[in-house]
Design a protein that fits this description.
It holds the Pfam family DUF7885. This is F-box/LRR-repeat protein 15-like leucin rich repeat domain-containing protein. This protein is α/β, with parallel strands linked by helices. Helices cover 35% and strands 14% of the residues.
């Protein structure tokens, strides 16, 4: 990597994933005009990282760290000071950040357009107050899975409504999200195009209907595993029948939506697409496959969804399925996924909290 970085003098983007064999010494040799740096599940010496960022601070616009435990709480503040003009920032799955105000320095990045904080337990109400005050240009925001220690309450989630430039919002798997918050968001986020509420089980038809009716630019709504019924779908259908010509894609897998009871007239079908496909139907495709994939490896898979901007943990299971040639082995993996999703989520959250306690003691 050192040779590569030194010889490729016009590198604008670097991304490395799943490496534990490198010390990260190459990071010291970063040079302009580097604009984007992405590290995923990457072991390194954080001091090398800071040295490298200091050399490209004038051109660097995008930073992404996904499950990089070497990064310390103090490093976040240093990076924010060195690169004040960042526009894209991802700090997903950063369980090494245990100090409550560790993320506060990034609220000084006033040019941020996209921010991904998925699975960060230190996102709190105080952080959100500073974020909405200073980062009003945000268009993409991911707060999924940020309720580990219940630091981000209804107060903090409601503040998202002040980010009126948002077009993409993801608050999946957050126990604190409810219909009252959705009502507030629907009245303020008029530019919203994509909303993901997957696994927020306090969300009902009441909140979803407010979003559908008030967010007139909405193109996709993911309410999989939310507590909704056909009532939400009927609201979207009625809107289309009344002349609303926007195209909207609603994903409602794992809900009480019954497509057999929905009547969508041919003339409005181009404008509304209701997808109730669940994880089971996707897994059946793997189970029914007799392909021999023994020549593949986990390195052939990217379980981070770059387009959506979040970590696809189900992708890890799909990797295992694709690498398995035996139908029996596939059936075992499918059973684990379908029956244990909620259990795994709870265990994962509790293990994170336990790890934080151990680090603080």
């Amino acid at each position: 990597m050192i040779t590569l970085v030194k010889k490729c003098k016009k590198l604008k983007k670097i991304g490395l994933k799943f490496s534990s064999s490198l010390s990260g010494a190459w990071l010291k040799h970063l040079r302009c005009p580097l604009q984007s740096l992405s590290l995923e599940m990457y072991e390194m010496n954080p001091d090398y990282l800071l040295q490298g960022i200091s050399k490209v601070h004038s051109t660097l616009k995008e930073l992404s760290f996904i499950c990089c435990p070497a990064i310390r709480c103090s490093d976040i503040g240093t990076i924010a000071e060195m690169v004040p003009n960042l526009t894209y920032l991802t700090l997903a799955g950063m369980f090494s950040l245990i100090r409550l105000n560790a993320l506060l320095p990034i609220t000084k990045l006033k040019n941020l357009i996209r921010l991904d904080l998925e699975q960060n337990s230190v996102v709190c109400d105080n952080f959100m107050e500073n974020l909405v005050e200073n980062c009003s240009s945000l268009m993409h925001l991911n707060l999924s899975g940020t309720d580990h220690s219940y630091n981000l309450t209804e107060k903090g989630l409601t503040l998202v409504a002040r980010l009126t430039n948002l077009t993409h919002l993801r608050i999946a798997c957050h126990d604190g999200l409810n219909d009252n918050i959705l009502k507030t968001l629907s009245n303020k986020l008029k530019n919203l195009k994509h909303l993901d509420l997957t696994g927020c089980q306090k969300i009902t038809d009441e909140g979803c209907i407010e979003i559908i009716n008030n967010c007139t630019q909405l193109e996709s709504l993911n309410v999989s595993r939310c507590n909704i019924t056909n009532t939400t779908m009927l609201a979207a259908i009625e809107l289309a029948e009344n002349g609303c010509k926007r195209k909207i894609h609603i994903i409602a897998g794992g809900t009480r939506v019954d497509p057999d009871e929905l009547i969508i007239k041919p003339e409005i079908r181009p404008y509304i697409n209701i997808d109730i496909q669940t994880i089971i139907s996707q897994l059946d495709e793997f189970y029914d496959s007799d392909n021999d994939n023994s020549d593949l490896s986990l390195d052939d898979y990217d379980i981070y969804d770059d387009e959506a901007g979040y970590y696809d943990f189900f992708g890890m299971f799909f990797c295992l399925l694709s690498l398995t040639s035996s139908k029996l082995e596939k059936k075992i993996i499918i059973t684990i996924i379908v029956t244990s999703f909620d259990f795994i989520t709870v265990i994962w959250k509790e293990s994170i909290n336990f790890g934080q306690i151990c680090q603080m003691s």
